[in-house]
Design brief:
With 138 residues, the protein is α+β, with helices and mostly antiparallel strands. 36% of the residues lie in helices and 24% in strands. The protein contains three helices and five strands; from the N terminus they run E-H-H-E-E-H-E-E.
Length: 138
Amino acid sequence: MRSTFDIRQRPPGELPPPEDAEMVGVMRRRARQRLSASGLAYVADEAVLIVSELVTNAIVHSGGREVAVILSLRAGFLRIDVHDGVPSCHARPKVSRDADEDGRGLVLVQSLAEVGRGTWGVENGGATTWCELELAAG
């Protein structure tokens, strides 16, 4: 699956307009449908949560104009790539305080990757964030 969509360019961290924010749900639904159609429904909950977090980060923090979501199979792993085209240092987990309302997305992605016997990382200077989950018979 490869889905690309445009977002309104704005300063990183500025709240996105509703039409951009709605794309998070659209990408979750597309990912779930593609995984179910491919016989991978057993990994869909984790993968959809990862897609949600990575797409949200791209929309909110990149300052870019376009986001691409790519789901692919590689040697027994489901790979999720989210590319926003803008190199960034925001693609790192940060320690959040209990009172913080955000900032836990990449920590969650890291945790899901560990539980799914996978890994995650960044490429292209932070313009692409990816996660791999090991596939097992479901």
